[in-house]
């Protein structure tokens, strides 16, 4: 095993141990939020792969998350498939759907691709209302069952969600970090900066774009299945347009060209509802403000990030540190 791979594996094992300890030392709300952070982290990672590396802009990843969420729920609800197999199926079907979409996306660029994926995010989740097998507006119930008895009576359902989502995120980011540091990752980054140069070097940019879209869609589908797990239902209301815009905002805040900031982006997305709730209680008009304020905060954060930290706070800090060292 190469030395870099050993170091990376050791770091991920250590991080997993830290997450395990944290899950036993915080209350139920924080445990649930930890599971949500893991879900958002995978979704943001899919945007980093697609946009930060292959240069393809998607504003409709919420629709791909919906595909994964419905596949997992349908596999469990209709066919009795174990939840872990449902997650695998969610990633596979979302990847195949994304691969078909990627064939068309490889011929589009810039605002055309962004507009196409945005239309997908608007229309696809609402199609569930037209098919009774998908549960209509109420959706499909998704129950992964109680935690194994061996974990003890004090091991709650929320801790079970946290363990599953955190383990999935660790596996995803271990594989994704190795992939993006490989020749494929370097080639994808080359496509994003100079597609013509990549073509002249002997690679096929269109094919590589399709592969990137497929892998990104698979990750989005997995995050959608994990999201459905945490809310126990796959329904159109679980995958609104705001979800797509939230994931994009989280990716921009994280630094769309690097995986290092995904936790920061996902933590901010999970914290926004709490901030909105605190503000609404202070103002007084709780129901109206709490329903509209999160979207406003996300919009403001996206604009501020694009204006002042387009590469993400973490990437900007790294550049500042590097600049400071070079002056010494």
UniProtKB/TrEMBL annotation:
The keyword Transmembrane applies. The keyword Transmembrane applies. Keywords: Cell membrane, Membrane, Transmembrane, Transmembrane helix. GO terms for molecular function: branched-chain amino acid transmembrane transporter activity. The chain crosses the membrane at residues 33-52, 59-77, 83-105, 112-133, 160-180, 210-231, 243-272, 293-310. InterPro entries: ABC_transp_permease, LivM-like. Its main location: membrane. This is Unannotated protein. It is found in: Cell membrane. GO terms for cellular component: plasma membrane. Pfam families: BPD_transp_2. It is a multi-pass membrane protein.
């Amino acid at each position: 095993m190469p030395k870099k791979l050993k170091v990376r594996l050791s770091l991920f094992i250590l991080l997993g141990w830290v997450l395990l300890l944290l899950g036993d030392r915080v209350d139920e709300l924080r445990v649930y939020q930890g599971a949500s952070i893991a879900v958002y982290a995978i979704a943001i990672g899919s945007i980093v792969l697609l946009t930060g590396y292959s240069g393809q802009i998607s504003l409709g990843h919420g629709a791909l998350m919906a595909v994964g969420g419905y596949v997992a729920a349908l596999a469990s609800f209709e066919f009795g498939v174990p939840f872990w197999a449902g997650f695998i199926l969610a990633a596979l079907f979302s990847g195949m759907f994304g691969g078909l979409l990627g064939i068309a996306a490889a011929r589009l660029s810039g605002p055309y691709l962004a507009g196409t994926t945005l239309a997908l995010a608007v229309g696809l989740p609402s199609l569930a209302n037209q098919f009774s097998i998908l549960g209509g507006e109420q959706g499909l119930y998704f129950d992964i069952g109680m935690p194994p008895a061996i974990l003890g009576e004090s091991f709650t359902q929320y801790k079970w969600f946290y363990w599953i989502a955190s383990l999935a995120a660790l596996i995803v980011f271990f594989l994704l970090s190795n992939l993006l540091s490989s020749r494929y990752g370097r080639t994808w980054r080359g496509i994003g900066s100079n597609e013509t140069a990549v073509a002249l070097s002997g690679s096929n940019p269109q094919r590589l774009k399709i592969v990137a879209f497929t892998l990104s869609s698979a990750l989005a589908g997995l995050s959608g299945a994990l999201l459905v797990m945490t809310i126990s239902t796959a329904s159109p209301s679980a995958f609104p347009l705001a979800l797509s815009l939230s994931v994009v905002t989280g990716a921009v805040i994280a630094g769309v060209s690097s995986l290092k900031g995904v936790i920061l982006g996902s933590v901010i997305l999970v914290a926004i509802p709490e901030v909105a709730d605190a503000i609404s209680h202070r103002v007084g008009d709780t129901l109206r403000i709490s329903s509209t304020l999160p979207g406003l905060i996300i919009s403001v954060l996206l604009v501020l990030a694009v204006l002042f930290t387009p590469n993400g706070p973490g990437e900007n800090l790294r550049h500042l540190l590097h600049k400071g060292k070079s002056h010494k």
